Amino acid sequence: MMNFRTVVAAMSLFLLSTLVKAQYTMHKMISVGYTYQKQSFGEIGGKLLFLKNDDVIYRVGGSAMMGSVDSKFAIMPKLQADVLLNFEKNVDFYHSYYFLAGVEGTNKYIAPKIGVTLFGMLDLTGGYAFPIGDTRLNGKEMKGLNINFTLNVPTVFIHDMFK
Q: Within its chain, how far is the Cα of 52 from the centroid?
């Protein structure tokens, strides 16, 4: 059986190879958020946003989830891929909200998710986590309801603030 890292690397390579083309533009973002997965976790990481037009947007990212599980500090790496959709035409304020569908995976679970995002910057998603084998985090199984609240700040915005 293939290990988790091999599967994630192959999946990421496939996703990136289908997305990265000359006509897509890419934007870097820093993400900070909160994840509930049987415990509360803080999250910090980065994402890449790919878009051709503003109807369909693709994002891939990685982050570190940090929190206390059974009174012990724990850190889990997390990879994620999202598709943001908004096909509304003739809007006054360019696509202020998007529907989001995606998947996130750690070394303990994989969780498909759906939700909404404002301007692609403020995400609220929910899903269900499926454990990978018998893996546990400090003795606790990471299975069940998965809720995420994330703020994605474009690095261009940060660069422009300090000019």
A: 20
